[in-house]
Amino acid sequence: MNWATIPKVELHLHLEGAAPPEFIRQLAREKNVELPGVFDEKGAYRWTDFAEFLRTYAAACSVLQGPEDFGRLAQAVLETSAGDGVIYTEIFIAPDICGGGDKVAWGEYLAALTEAARSAQASHGIVARFISTCIRNHGAEAAENAARLSAGTAGEMLTGFGMGGEERFGSVQDYVKAFAIAAEAGLEITSHAGEICGAESVRETLEHLPVSRIGHGVRAIEDPELVKRLADEEIVLEVNPGSNIALSVYDRWEAHPIQKLRDAGVPVTVSTDDPPYFHTDMPREYRRLHEVFGWDAEDFRAINLTAAHAAFCDEKTRSEII
Ligand code: HPA
Ligand code: ZN
What we know:
Blueprint: E1 8-14, H1 21-31, H2 50-61, H3 67-83, E2 86-93, H4 103-124, E3 127-135, H5 140-152, E4 158-164, H6 176-184, E5 188-193, H7 199-208, E6 213-216, H8 224-232, E7 236-239, H9 241-246, H10 258-263, E8 268-270, H11 282-293, H12 297-310, H13 315-321
Helix pairs in contact: 3-4, 5-6
The structure holds hypoxanthine and zinc ion.
Zinc ion binds at residues 12, 14, 164, 192, 215, 273.
């Protein structure tokens, strides 16, 4: 199988988390910004655990300083994805990072990102949509502000709202209002849960937030009743196996629950999360799934169909990627 050319639908990719280290170093040079501790001696992102990953991520983001930088980044990321065989991608962006939560700035960032997405579609055929996220460890007030900005810019390109960041911070209930604002505006909803924290985190998310998908969600496997609920309610998991291995959620691919979840009837999809941080990309994820679980062209077709049905896009776009 040619891992680069087999068509792929990706639903879980953080824009800044997809920035190649060289891209961040180039911007740092252009702006004369020092980035102490961000890179290791080989030039890769330096981090050892999830908390440090989030700190390195935030430090690397400090060189992304305006709509133009983000437009350049989106263009580079989409070109890479297209080269990896991705035909449709959903990219997480964040009002807290794009303009620090300011309404006018957010509009300018989103315009630059939209332009990059349109240009990548014209030049590389890849279709992209954006999911705006709040950052859990920035607190409920910042999340509500992010939700209001997202609600005000919901449309063809900005189609979803979600939450990333430190899963151990606060409680899901604190974010009910933010998600209600976003859902009310017609944005479709996903949220990170069951990555760093266990099944209870997924259960709370289902209980309190209007999600149709969950970012990761893999630790639901620790509770068979919850697995059954995910299957019965057809809650789609955005699974990122390579990310989970890199962050030591599981110690090896063979121990990853994606196959068990799939066997239990949970709709699973496959994405990369933050590829250069986790030393992965879509072709590598597919190759490992083939090697470890024996997934073949038919399995990949099935998970891509699941992803296309769960995509936050209009029906016309959906019909084009199926
Ligand atoms: N998990 C949670 N938040 C994030 C991640 C992640 O993998 N990447 C960027 N923000
Ligand atoms: Zn993520």
